[in-house]
Amino acid sequence: MIKLILVTFAVLIAGCVTSPVVSVGPDSYSLTARQCDICSSAEGKSITTASQYCEGIGKHLVIRNQNNSSDWHGATHSTIFFSCLNSNDPEYTRPNMRQDNGVTTVENR
Fold first, then answer.
1. Cα gap 45→92, rounded to integer Å
2. What is the pLDDT of residues 83-103, one digit of tens each?
3. DSSP line for the chain
4. How far apart are CA 31 and CA 21, in angstroms?
5. FRET partner for 22 with CA separation of 20 to 30 A, picked from 3, 77, 79, 107?
6. What confidence tier does 9 reach under pLDDT thresholds 50, 70, 90?
7. Is this model's pTM higher than 0.85 or not?
């Protein structure tokens, strides 16, 4: 019985996946996080992973776009597009987040 519980737990944990960070342009990146029922939110995981990536290269996270969705069995997915910028970069400003039909868009004004 304990083995069954451990195997079930391992399968559920394996469902919590974050893709590698992919370069999509100059200082621009993308990643996708998938959440299962027992993990933290996919949205939070994608932002945390992006922030850690930027900090790892000595820069600051600027979210460009985030798309959250869920599949037929309730697992959520969060794809984030972001930039890693130096603190003196003119694009490193306070974002203005707005919601658009399940897509979070960042406006810099």
1. 22
2. 999 999 988 887 766 666 555
3. -HHHHHHHHHHHHHT-EEPPPEEEETTEEEEEEEE-TTSPPHHHHHHHHHHHHHHHTT-EEEEEEEEEEE-TTS-EEEEEEEEEE-TT-TT----EEEEETTEEEEE--
4. 5
5. 107
6. very low
7. no
